[in-house]
Design goal:
Structural class: alpha+beta
Order of helices and strands: EHHHEEEHEEEHEHEHE
Strand content: 15-25%
Strand order of the largest sheet: 7-4-5-6-8
Number of strands: 10
Distance between the termini: 39 Å
Helix content: 10-25%
Length: 266
């Protein structure tokens, strides 16, 4: 068996991946990946000292005023070729009115942002329907905390992962929420572990889990040999760990080592 780290498959309803309609298809979400973890087991057994929910969130329980200053990362121009440089981006500071949240809206604070290879293609300007353009915020995978909510599906202090514009704080309307890839991390991790929301509990984790278990039928791979290309990447490294530690596979990983040419080579 082999799997390419660069494999991409667009699936509606991320982060849940259902790649076939049969009963044996694999569905991924945070609960399926961490349902048997020590933290989740402690939560089910009522051992509150071993896990943190939104009630223990530092943001949720402080009396500090909610942040109003928003910093956004904007793309200044299309980058059709070459390497993105600082002049292609601009950090803009603005003030967000958070005095009164409307019904159905949520106020979010982004705590971590993910810079992923696929984002380079979005900045070339050759897509028929680009997700953003010059003068607009860069979009990508983020994770953070709900500061305030008037939406029945979210509570203040909930931790989340999402695909959103790169803003430190933002308000989402019910319509925006319905169109946004956003999933709960509450109960699975603490705020100090929020980076998991853009890693093992984000796009890389879902790609590794769905790609191995469903595309490669990994659930029937016990004892087989798995070759993972780009094994040093975010997805490939997790595929190898799942195959070795969960399904007892022999894993062979390869990666491409890039070195800058020396002046005498040019």
């Amino acid at each position: 068996m082999c799997i390419r780290d660069r494999y991409q498959r667009r699936v509606r309803g991320f982060p849940r991946i259902a790649m076939s309609s049969s009963s044996s298809s694999v569905q991924w979400n945070a609960s399926s990946l961490l349902g048997a973890s020590p933290r989740s087991t402690a939560r089910r057994d009522g051992q509150n000292d071993k896990h943190r929910t939104y009630e223990h969130s530092s943001i949720h329980n402080t009396q500090k005023p909610r942040p109003q200053i928003c910093k956004s990362l904007l793309l200044t121009e299309w980058i059709p070729e070459g390497k993105p440089n600082p002049e292609h981006f601009e950090v803009v500071t603005s003030k967000l009115d958070v005095s009164e949240l409307q019904e159905g809206h949520v106020l979010l604070q982004t705590m971590v942002f993910s810079a992923d290879p696929y984002m380079r293609g979005q900045m070339k300007g050759n897509n028929a329907e680009p997700s953003y353009g010059p003068g607009e915020a860069v979009r990508g995978f983020v994770a953070g905390e709900v500061l305030e909510s008037k939406h029945p599906g979210w509570a203040a202090g909930d931790l989340f992962g999402a695909s959103l514009g790169f803003h430190t704080i933002q308000i989402l309307s019910p319509e925006q929420l319905s169109q946004t890839l956003m999933w709960k991390l509450t109960g699975h991790i603490s705020p100090s572990e929020i980076s998991w929301g853009i890693g093992v509990l984000g796009m890389p984790g879902s790609t590794a889990y769905g790609g191995f278990l469903d595309v490669l039928d990994g659930k029937h791979s016990e004892g087989q040999t798995l070759w993972v290309s780009a094994a040093a990447g975010a997805v490939g490294s997790m595929v190898g760990q799942i195959a070795k530690n969960v399904y007892n596979c022999t894993v062979v990983g390869t990666c491409l080592l890039y070195t800058s040419p020396s002046p005498r080579d040019s």
